[in-house]
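Board notes (copied after class):
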Amino acid sequence: MRIFFDTEFTGLHQNTTLISIGFIAEDGKTFYGEFVDYDKSQVDDWIQENVIDNTLFLKKKNNTVLNSTSLNQYCHVGAANTIVSDLKDWLAQFDTVEMWSDCLAYDWVLFNELFGHAFNIPNNVYYIPFDISTLFKIKGIDPDISREKFIKESINKDSIQKHNALWDAEVIKLCYEKLMAKP
């Protein structure tokens, strides 16, 4: 199963911490987590305005833990250890998982870090991630293209939530589908 994912974090630096993570599987099943234990001292105005203000729950400044048992549409707000536990359960429903992201250098490292290190990721998750940016290049399209412009016919302009991890995961999925349909 291909799973498209994205992360939002406290900055482009080595000690960054996760704010949110979103996954959407080929079959439409989703997982979305918001972390209450990110390093708030690393939040600058840009992160606040463009990331935290685009979360579904953290922007409300209440740390109510939300939990859903549905493996189709899963949402959780809480500490990393509880989100990881639920993420393991969600990933377990798939026999094999092929992970896709966009400019995935930070995303993949942060995903692996959730499990302690790369050797601890779930056994059904393929250890080599795939990057939609590379697929753009292979298909002869400038990888710096606006993802939303590329899939403009597939999205509702009123619902754009750039820098929301679940939204970005859905955009990655739509880009992948359009790119794979291209000869």
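Comment from the instructor: Residues 165-181 form the longest helix (17 residues). Strands lie at 2-9, 18-25, 30-35, 73-78, 98-101, 130-131.
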